[in-house]
Design a protein that fits this description.
The chain is mainly alpha-helical. It has 3 helices and no strands. The longest helix is centred in the C-terminal third of the chain and has 34 residues, at 66-99. The relative contact order is 0.19.
Length: 100
């Protein structure tokens, strides 16, 4: 059950980046801060992903061990960071092509 919650949290976090990229095609998704022009759907997806992931990781850590919880968080946030990097790279490539 906890793995299902982790999967839902990861999917929600990745979906928040994709929705932001679709709604704001000219601005890149920031790594270290919350975007000020963030649509409500992105906020809901990001917050839901965070809480689902954290709750499931804590439950996994308490039932199996701390390292399982840590590896769960790394396993969720790594695809999220890759999604942000790819989204920002595609956006830079598109703006470079449009300006040329």
């Amino acid at each position: 059950m906890w793995v299902l919650l982790v999967t839902l949290g990861a999917a929600s976090s990745v979906a928040s980046v994709l929705v932001y990229a679709h709604d704001r095609p000219t601005s890149s998704y920031p790594f270290s801060s919350t975007p000020s022009d963030e649509p409500k759907a992105v906020k809901v997806l990001r917050i839901a992903g965070f809480f689902l992931t954290m709750f499931a990781a804590l439950m996994l850590a308490s039932s199996t061990g701390v390292w399982v919880g840590v590896l769960t968080l790394v396993g969720v946030w790594l695809p999220l960071m890759v999604t942000i990097l790819i989204s920002n790279a595609v956006r830079r490539h598109r703006t470079r092509d449009l300006s040329a």
